[in-house]
Design goal:
- With 219 residues, the protein is mostly helical.
- It is 70% helix and 0% strand.
- The protein contains 10 helices and no strands.
- Helix 6 crosses helix 10.
Length: 219
């Protein structure tokens, strides 16, 4: 097969969407985990810093099985950022704020990406082959929706998701620590809910609503 025939045989649409999705997952997970670490560090816990997790290098945060699940199943995970609540003046509150930083960073990332697309990139697009166009497509159509979805998914109050730790700040200590004991089973529950499409049905509508809301703010 000559080179021209090889080029014609490539499914360019599949390649384009795969690259876009991989880059979007790397970006959204890296921002999410880094912001967990930054929040913990701001509250007095140096564990993430000492573990070199205050980094925008995605290789420091990626769990390869979770990354593959995120790509192919729409549900995955990164390496948990190490947090030691003993450094916090109020451990439950500190854990809640550290947990909340991840989803909030994803929503903020989505909004800023869309704002940049509408206020800056839109003025630079001269054709569908220029770099500004491809960056617009990546940020607006891939990174922003995925980031919103990751943020919303992690707000579900199911251990080990961030929402469970946020909820824990409002629970009595005995109830909170009892909830955290079931963290190992939470992943199995999430896999089951994802398998039956329950989490997708709950979140997809919310993603669209927030995406449209951000779109109005950016217009």
């Amino acid at each position: 097969m000559d080179f021209d025939s090889l080029l014609r045989s490539i499914d360019w649409y599949w390649l384009e969407t795969t690259v876009m999705r991989v880059l979007a997952v790397l970006l959204c997970l890296t921002v999410h985990e880094t912001c967990h670490g930054l929040a913990a560090y701001a509250l007095g816990d140096p564990t993430a810093r000492d573990g070199r997790r205050l980094s925008l290098n995605p290789l420091r945060h990626i769990d390869w099985l979770g990354f593959a699940m995120m790509l192919f199943a729409g549900f995955g995970w990164a390496k948990p950022v190490p947090v030691d609540p003993r450094y916090f003046k109020k451990p439950k509150c500190g854990m809640a704020l550290t947990a909340l930083a991840g989803p909030v960073s994803n929503l903020l990332l989505a909004f800023l990406a869309m704002l940049f697309c509408h206020k800056v990139l839109a003025n630079w697009i001269v054709s569908d082959t220029c770099p500004a166009y491809w960056l617009y497509v990546f940020l607006h159509l891939w990174a922003a929706p995925l980031s919103i979805g990751l943020g919303l998914f992690n707000l579900l109050p199911i251990p080990p998701l961030d929402g469970a730790k946020v909820l824990g700040a409002f629970l009595p200590d005995q109830t909170y620590f009892g909830l955290m004991r079931y963290e190992r089973y939470g992943m199995l529950l999430l896999l089951a809910l994802s398998w039956f499409g329950v989490t997708g049905d709950l979140i997809n509508g919310a993603i669209l609503g927030i995406y449209d809301f951000f779109l109005e703010l950016c217009s």
